[in-house]
Amino acid sequence: MKQQKIASVHLRRGKEESLERRHPWVFSGAIERISENIAPLAEGDLVDVVTKQGDFIARGHWQIGSIAVRVLSFEREDIDQAWWNRRIREAKGVREALGLVGNTSTTCYRLIHGEGDLLPGLVVDIYEGNAVVQCHSVGMYRSRQAIAEA
Predict the structure, then answer these.
(1) Would you put residue 111 in left (φ > 0), alpha (ψ -120 to 50) or beta?
(2) What's the Rg (C-alpha) of the chain?
(3) Residue 61: which residues within 8 A CB-CB, separation 6 or more?
(4) Which residue, 46, 133, 50, is CA-closest to 88?
(5) Contact at 8 Å (CB) between 58 and 38?
(6) In degrees, to the nearest 5, what angle opens at C-alpha 11 toward C-alphas 5 and 68?
(7) What is the CB neighbour count within 10 angstroms for residue 126?
(8) How far apart are the C-alpha atoms of 146 and 25, rounded to whole Å?
(9) Tens-binned pLDDT, residue by residue, of the chain (150 aa)
(10) CA gap 6, 46 in Å, rounded
(11) How far is Cα 17 from Cα 121, in angstroms, rounded to an integer?
(12) Interacting residues of 89 by C-beta distance below 8 A, sequence separation 6+
């Protein structure tokens, strides 16, 4: 599989603690600098979040604003179609376990609930078998085709 080339967001000393607890956001004030390994960074691009010493912590979508990175993974893995398929399948499995999928009492349920499903910035509701997708970040909007396919 082809390795993705992405920029690195270097945190200020001590700002990795919330990420070590698996909090899915990096606030702009926690960032010391950005190493752009490729073309200039654009909103929605994937970035690696690293400690001041350069140790990998997470991978996520970059966005200008107070929430600068929305973490998609705490593993160094490609965010490709297989990744989207797996994440959305996992979310569906939770809804199946809760008895929401195929429930004759209702025809609607929330399939993806952002951070709760490790997909910050994404909400997907199912209404009578139709998916309604809400992208609350540039990265999720730019990923909408992969999301729809999954």
Answers:
(1) alpha
(2) 16
(3) 44, 45, 46, 47, 69, 70, 72, 121, 137, 138, 139, 140, 143
(4) 133
(5) no
(6) 70
(7) 19
(8) 22
(9) 344 578 999 999 999 999 999 999 999 999 999 986 656 789 999 999 999 999 999 999 999 999 999 999 999 999 999 999 999 999 999 999 999 999 999 889 999 999 999 999 999 999 999 999 999 999 999 999 999 999
(10) 6
(11) 22
(12) 150
- The per-residue DSSP string of 74-126 comes to SS----SHHHHHHHHHHHHHHHHHTT-TT-TT-SEEEEEEGGGGT-TTEEEEE
E strands in 1-103: 7-11, 25-27, 31-35, 46-50, 56-62, 67-73
Report the largest interatomic distance among the alpha carbons of the chain, rounded to a whole angstrom. Answer: 54
Q: Which amino acid is at 73?
A: S
The pTM assigned to this predicted structure is 0.90
- How far is it, in rounded angstroms, from Cα 143 to Cα 66? 21
